[in-house]
Amino acid sequence: MPRTGWMCDTDSGMTASTHPLMDRIDWQKAGDETLALLSRLLKQRTINAPDGNPNETAAASMIADLFRAEGMEPEVLESAPGRGNVLCRLPGDGSGGEPILLSGHLDVVPVELDQWKRDPFAGEVHDGWMWGRGAVDMKHMVAMEVMTMILLHRLGVPLKRDLIFAGVADEEAGCEQGSLWLARNHPEKIRGEYVISEIGGFTLHMAGKHFYPVQVAEKGICWLTITARGTPGHGSLPNRDNPIAAIARAAELLATKRLPHHVTPVVERFVRTLSQHQKVPNSLVLKGLLSKPLCGHILDNVFPDPSLASTFDAVLHNTANPTILRSGVKINQVPGEASVQVDGRLLPGQTGADLIEEIKRLIGPGYTYTIDKEMPASVTEVADPIAGMIDTVLTRHDTKAVPIRNLLPGFTDAKAYTELGMKCWGFSPLKLPPGSNFAAMFHGHNERVPVDGVRWGLAVLMDLISGLVAK
Ligand SMILES: [Zn+2]
User: Fold this and answer.
1) CATH code of residue 252
2) What CA–CA distance (Å, rounded) separates 213 from 426?
3) Domain CATH for 401
4) Which of 66, 178, 373, 391 matches a 20 to 30 Å C-alpha distance to 19?
5) Residue of 457, 462, 458 lying closest to 212 (CA atoms)
């Protein structure tokens, strides 16, 4: 096969470190199979909503059948009825180290049907894009991972370490039925040195450069309840000690003011790399985000795009969003207590206790705090050898690639794998053309992926994985 089948942008970037098996693959056929699988996955309505069962088992069983047809030995493990997780392992001799896990979640977030220009569950291609809920997040990666497993199996190359695939349930609702359940109940089936999953590897076009964020860290969670107590009384009499007023003041401050500025090493490097590739004044604006006195002003007044500002805001501060208010049971009775639940997110190095101190300084005394759930931020050592391999693979397939490491404000299955001591890399390669907005499509309307971008992603993933596992 001609190398141009998988070399996208370049005719000169080939290096000796590409594994020879890359030349044995019919990339047209492999890409067709990947896209066909992606289409079938998109037709599975694995919608993770509070009032329904996503039935990931249907998608998990479909993948298991594909593996079985190839002579591989998958298994489907249900954490609850319909909540299937599919696992498959290609054994290696261990000479190259502990296993590598390819992980992808099978569930998707709900859709607002009337906002879509195409059917989100038809898995159809229109004008070079495959449309569907989950196309970006993250069924394209699941399809590429499955294909990577199948290609390695078909080629029959000996492996120097195990390669495991995990298609998991429930990521969109907190991972309890999926990766966390696997990590707590079947750790031996998924444990390895590295996990490769979301969120990163997509093209971010800025100033003529192709940035590729690679997720190496994600914020932690501190969900807490803040309670105010006051003097209960009859609703007909004025009451200056009404706890509803106290909790409303706290909620207003939390929703409108920032917590203190913190620059973590991952974010500092991310901002400096972006800045180096920008011209003045954008380069200075970006660098200003690292300055305590300037950051808030820049986010509020200089950034043209509020959603971009809020992303930078989230990676430079602990955040505490009020999400649920509770108080009162009767219209004519002033309650004795009011509370607000707060979705707190922690930067690397910060604890729930640190967050509460910051909140106390913002809202003042007179409140009590209960932490309902806390999970620390996860951070992968960026000096790891796999970092260089990811950079090399990216630049081999896109000569304009500028890889950057990023911190995700939200959380992913990486939380579960971190519990097993695994090193998590958010790298689900997807080449996007200029003008496409990854962030807007992620959980957004009209989610879709370019079919050429998926073909490219398959080659990039296969290049990385073959370098890691094939002898
Ligand atoms: Zn996702």
Assistant:
1) 3.30.70.360
2) 9
3) 3.40.630.10
4) 66
5) 457
Residue 180's closest CA among 428, 411, 427?
A: 411
Distance of CA 49 from the midpoint of ligand 1 (Å)? 14
Q: Could you list the residue range(s) of the whole structural domain that residue 36 is in?
A: 3-216+378-469
Domain end residue (candidates: 358, 375, 392): 375
The pLDDT of residue 303: 84
* Start-to-end CA span in the chain (Å): 21
Q: In this structure, are 136 and 161 located in the same domain?
A: yes
pLDDT tens column, 289-299: 999 999 999 99
Residue partners of 381: CB distance under 8 A and separation at least 6: 423
Please indicate, yes or no, whether residues 231 and 310 belong to a single structural domain of this protein. yes
Provide the pLDDT confidence category of residue 208 given band limits of 50, 70 and 90.
confident
For the chain, how many structural domains are there in total?
Answer: 2
Whether the Cβ atoms of residue 77 and residue 182 lie closer than 8 Å to each other = yes
CA 378 to ligand 1 center in whole angstroms: 16
The residues facing 375 across adjacent strands are 221
- By C-alpha distance, which of 334, 122, 316 is closest to 235? 334
